Amino acid sequence: MKKFALMITAIATGLAMTSCLDSDDNKVTNTVTRSYAKCFNTVYDATTGDIAINQQPKYTLTIKSTSKGENSIQISMTNVKLGDDIAYTTFDLPDLPMKVTGTSAPYVEATDVRPTNIATPSINFSSIYVSVLDRYIHNSSANTNEFYPVYTINFVVNNRYTVTTYPTEIQYFGETKSTATASGSVFTSSDPRYAITFDPDKKTASIDITSAQFVSAMPKMNMTFPDIPFTTGINSLEIKSDAVTPTIAGTPYPTFPITGLEATINTRQASATLVFDCNPMSMGDYHVDASLSYLLKQNK
Amino acid sequence: MQTFDTLTNFVTVNSLLLTAILALQSAPADSVTMTVPLGEVSVTAIKSGRAGMDMSPVSATMVGESEAQRLGIITMKGVSEIAPNFYIPDYGSRMTSSIYVRGIGARIDQPSVGLCVDNVPFLNKDNYDFDLVDIESIEVMRGPQSTLYGRNSMAGTVNVTTLSPLRRQGVRILAEGGTGGTARAAAGIYARLLPRLGMSLTADFHYTHGYFTNTYNNSRADSEEGGSLRWKTSWRPSPSVMVENTAAITMSAQHGYPYAWEKTGTIAYNDTCFYRRTGITDGLTVKWSGSNISVSSITSFQYIDDNMTLDQDFLTDSYFTLTQKRREWALTQDVVAKGTAGRYSWLAGLFGFYRHTGMDAPVTFKTDGIANLITGHRNEMNPVYPVTWDSDIFPLYSTFTMPSGGFAAYHRSSVELGRFTLAADLRLDIEHTRLDYLSQCHATYTIHDLTDPGNPTVYSQPTIDIDNPGSLSRTFVQLLPKLSLTWRIPQLHRSIAYASVAKGYKSGGYNTQMFSDVLQQQVMAQMGVTSKYDISEIVSYDPESSWNYEIGAHISNKSGTLTADAALFWIECRDQQLTMFPDGVTTGRIMANAGRTRSRGVELSARWRIIRSITMQGAWGYTDARFTRFFNGITDFSGCRVPYAPSNTLFAGATWHHSFPGGSLIDRIETNINVRGIGDIWWDEANTRRQPFYAQLGASVRISRGCWSIDIWGENLTDTRFDTFSYISIGNTFMQRGKPARAGITLRIALEDLLNNPIFN
Hints:
heterodimer; A: mainly beta; Lipocalin; 8-stranded antiparallel beta barrel; 6-stranded antiparallel beta sheet; B: mainly beta; Maltoporin, Chain A; 25-stranded antiparallel beta sheet; 5-stranded mixed beta sheet; 8 helices
């Protein structure tokens, strides 16, 4: 398991990375191409109400930015399976203008977009939302800064299929609050880091917590909640288990029983919540509540 | 091989000198008797103003040859308490040279007080503690001397000068025996080979079986033997040129550490403890003096080869042992020019050094250490899947190479304005240090599955393979100013009052002792307990700096029978180098610049020759040193006293002598009685444990006749019980008791006197 000690930078996009430069008189265009394949889709069919999992889609994002402040993104997707009525699995979308609002990650939000590779007008992207968040996370054991971008991709096809893309591994930061059930005292820390790894085939998720500490007297530990079933919603995933035996360094730790675990992943909101109850080493019952996002509110 | 090469170089340099000397012997003898001014080639004289130390705006204490003999001073530790607010506790080994001056001191790494012996600036405080049998003077200067003496003289400087063969000739022999199975023998030949060329060769050997016993195996816990050889050459090829070279080899071997466990009050440990050291130094001083200008060059070479091995837990349990083997060599070069032009005098200098250290420092966890510090904690957290180590030992290896070098330029200007002298000093110090390291450990352990207690199985057998190669480097730049104002007091002979403000500086660097902590944290991380810190964060620390504000006076009556010194000081110390627990974590520690301290106090000393045969002296220092800011990640110690630095030092002594008429059985008798006091000393930052003030009584009687003298002496005659050091390790408190009452007899023979005795003429 990777160890994350500190997230040191975030924001800025492929605007800062250059793969080639074009020049048109006074305008310089930077183009960056990103490949996003470590992901899976949930596909909600509004007609049947079913939600299916589409594994191993691949997205190619070509981001252009010009010296005149014009930004656009061209999205190509392959292996995207929607429903029985749509045989196509490859969709090339035209250039769409990107926006930046405040400190948000650059994003595109558009409606009625027709793929350029499909002649029939029967395929229409009723709406699409894509954002690109570049961030670097410091790996303290290797003493390196590693690039962990986050891509948010949601779209609706033919006003019927709602597709939400989830990375197979997400890293979260945020505040973890532990409340002692008996006394009501609260222990708060922003040190724990959360990595959620999905197995869409088994429909399970593992939650890796680095620097987990739920009580001040508890040493910080790297803990894993393994193989927890998840269910799919239209725009979110829910990870839920009544009882989990965490592992530490691959070894089960029955002395840290976890109960009532619920996690909700909402990629559009770039956030997640995680709650559970624990009794670490019989130190007492604690209710743990973690509010997570892709970024730390302030760097340490 | 390296030691042999070093010895070869040492012999080669001095062979060249000897060749030059022999060549000179063929020249016609010069019948003029050369009188060499006392200490004119000493670094103090070279770097002091034209007024001399007693008229300089510096708090200084000088111990001369006869006083050193009277008080049995053979190391720098002997001056402790005699100089006010100057304290060197006697504990541990020869490697332990913790010096506290005015509340500022250092237990590890960089020293706070500089040491020069025959102008050789010792760069490593682990080499400070050695015996000298031919001391001419020891001078302790308190307060920052950084502008002239540079790095690591933030609290002061000690300058030791040995006898010059141009001032003393003959053969000197010493034989001593005392309690504690103490024996010492020394011999020195001081010869004036030519009117302007003198050479001396001194050797000494010492042994003690000590005063404390390791009750585990009934061995001596503080026994020691050692010796030294010193070859000094003093040459004045012309009236304006002085050359002095001192080459020395010292060796010592100590066979234990007398740390007692507070719980039992006894010394009892089962693993080997010793410290062995070989040190080689050579210092060459060349001084040219013109009418109003002089230029001096001080070149030195120093080499240390030592091995410290400890039962680190100091218990009969087998927790862990530590070894630190080191080879280090260093070169220094100081060039000082000074001159006067009417009322204006100046001094300018350039200093450079290079030091190279190679070190192996393995820490070995043994059965109890593995069980209690590694697997025990782990199994408390998970008794269903317990861990057992697959070996009885678990070594953590660390090897280091540390080259460092630096350069400095310094200047002093002073101008006399009537009775006032205004002086300004400035030094620019640049230093670069690098640490190349490899720390590693390899082990396997077994995780058992006891989910079915009646059928235990092996769950897994993980391996630990940690290899940390790396390199760190840092550069430090410091500007060190000093300003002083001196007023010559009218109607008093050689008396001044002064005020000064100076900046002091202690180098930053790397604390290699932390690497075992790094490895421990990484091992725990492999077992699932987070390792948060990277190596550079844990082992590196920044320079420490201080501002010293002082007013004082040196007073002397016209006849010189009464001299007195007084000083008031205030020191603000920043970025103090402290050990702390970072960010609320309760395991592991890092070296950090986390503290600010404030130290204020007073020093008084006086010497009064009441009548010709009676002299009294006294020295008292008081220091109130406290943290103004120190949060170690768990506790805030602001307002607490700085540990290990005493609040009071006290010395009082009286000497009486009587000379008998010619033809008597003895020529002279001299008695001395003295008291040394120290305390209170706090042992921890929270000031929960302390050593209260205590005093030790000493006395000596010397009978002399002709060329020989016999001293009968005693120290701590009241057998005062006290602790010189205390610390906590793995939850256990240890202390080292002070030495008990002891006595001895010393025979000295100076054959120059024998040759001049009428009996033989």
